[in-house]
DNA sequence: TTCGATGTACTCGATTCGAGTATAAATGGA
DNA sequence: TCCATTTATACTCGAATCGAGTACATCGAA
């Protein structure tokens, strides 16, 4: 049998946090993620993707982690490619400290809550959420499986909201026909929004047992800045004393001799990530607290 | 630029547990994993791999989960393909209830501890482990980073053994040149042993927060059988009272009216996995206890 | 100097978890 | 028959963790 495979596509979810907003790097007016074909000149998948990101966004990337490999049929059944050739996309999650981007394809940072407004639970519940759940309950009808899924994914009927289930919520809304137009969240080209949801899910899960947050932090930072970053990513409001307790119990950071300046309120001590502990925590797991309010 | 990509390879780690041994399906006398190229006739990556598994092992597969996508350069730099074309392999983890296999390629089940003898900590520590750590300490010399890695990965100097780090341990041993020959564990063709290590790592991590174990269990089982299965997978010895406490707290199983027979000792009640809870636990996370001894 | 915002230190109770102990019920061999 | 063995099952106890709340300190700015 002949292999008529289309080129393999590398695609990146590039995340940063600025002004307490989690942001994702987009192209073409915010409707696409950086991507490009894997070519035989690339030494590896990672280095190939790095080259594409540099070219399209002019932004250097530090941390880069493989997410998932999508095939067309697994992706969007409505795609024009579905019946033709099988395209394979390998998705990666990259973490950077935000800088201005200038590259081909009009790179721009957008808050990822533009695409998933229902995922931001930092202050109360998002406005759109009641309308979404109402529509979902109608969609579920009296099918017990559907009702159970809606309840667990959206924290209804006494179930707790689980911030990690970004992808599953998006897929449920997709099934229920709520993400076709622009009514709930900003759309993206083909299935890029689903790939973004995959990345957010992974990142929200990962900050709980791995010190990846520090990839997003500047050299030195206050503990509140660190907390606000974790809150931005997880979409949850955290309990300040508990957050600080965990951070120093884990000995993830060490004091610098400096203090913050400029902002109002009492100046805070500046901390830096402990470089010596890096490898060790990467392996054995550093827990970040995610208690509510 | 021309794309001279070799076909995409699908590769499976098929796991089962019988006689308290975790087993993996192999071909060609235990030196290779089931695999085959992704073809344009396949409807999806998963269904393509299912077809290859059926053909090569004659074994039906239920649960199948994507693991990781490897490119040659990411894999084994010594490979003959490294300088030629870029071959991509997509690895999957499949869970089955073991049956006799009969297909092309001489399918056979092997305990995965044949390939990783140092990973079985159910009774004392494995014999080979002292020899391995001795060699690693020599390799580390006085490089503090290397010493730290060895300590954390192999539970030395007061660090605890973390059973999930199968892949990281294998890669450290690879760097130290301990897995070239057959001295430590049985070798496999090309980098199949590393892919197997990836699968074991993922499965050991996953049984802690997801009820995937039940994919490996028969219809009804005693709580001790369930515990022995978890122990086989994790390579740890568990505390019986605590294990049972967690199982019924989680309400993962329900009693059948039957009791076990045949074995010596007091007959045990038979349980079955609660089908109603399936979807819910899949989403929100079911914890299995992994306390030592 | 008072307000507002932030930083920092403590307390308390609920839950979880590792570890140990004790007892019950069956089998099989002496 | 009875006892040793094996497995099942129930209970206890202390340490650690975690969510939640309270109190107080310290700065800048109005």
From TrEMBL, chains A, B:
Protein name: NrtR DNA-binding winged helix domain-containing protein
InterPro entries recorded: NMN_biosyn, NUDIX_hydrolase-like_dom_sf, WH-like_DNA-bd_sf, WH_DNA-bd_sf, WHD_NrtR
Residue ranges annotated for the NrtR DNA-binding winged helix domain, each copy included: 213-272
Organism domain of life: Bacteria
Signal peptide annotation: none
């Amino acid at each position: 049998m002949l292999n008529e495979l289309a080129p393999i596509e590398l695609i990146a979810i590039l995340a940063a946090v600025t002004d307490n907003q989690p942001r994702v790097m987009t192209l073409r007016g915010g409707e696409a993620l950086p991507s490009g074909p894997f070519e035989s000149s690339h030494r590896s998948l990672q280095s190939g993707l790095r080259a594409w990101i540099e070219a399209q966004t002019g932004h250097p990337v530090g941390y880069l982690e493989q997410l998932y490999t999508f095939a067309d049929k697994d992706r969007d059944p409505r795609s024009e490619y579905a019946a033709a050739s099988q395209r394979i996309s390998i998705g990666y999650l990259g973490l950077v400290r935000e800088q201005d981007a200038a590259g081909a394809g009009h790179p721009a940072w957008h808050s990822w809550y533009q695409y998933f407004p229902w995922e931001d639970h930092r202050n109360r519940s998002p406005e759109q959420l009641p309308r979404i759940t109402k529509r979902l309950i109608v969609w579920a009808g009296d099918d017990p499986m559907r009702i159970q899924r809606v309840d667990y994914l959206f924290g209804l009927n006494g179930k707790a909201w689980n911030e990690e289930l970004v992808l599953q919520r998006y897929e449920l809304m997709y099934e229920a026909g709520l993400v076709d137009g622009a009514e709930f969240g900003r759309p993206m080209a083909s299935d890029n929004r689903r790939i973004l949801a995959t990345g957010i899910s992974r990142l929200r899960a990962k900050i709980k047992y791995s010190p990846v947050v520090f990839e997003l932090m500047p050299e030195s930072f206050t503990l509140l800045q660190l907390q606000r970053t974790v809150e931005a990513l997880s979409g949850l409001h955290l309990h300040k004393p508990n957050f600080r307790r965990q951070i120093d119990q884990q000995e993830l950071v060490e004091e610098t001799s400096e203090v913050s300046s400029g902002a109002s309120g009492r100046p805070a001590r500046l901390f830096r990530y402990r470089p010596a502990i890096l490898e060790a925590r990467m392996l054995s797991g550093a827990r970040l607290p995610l208690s509510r309010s």
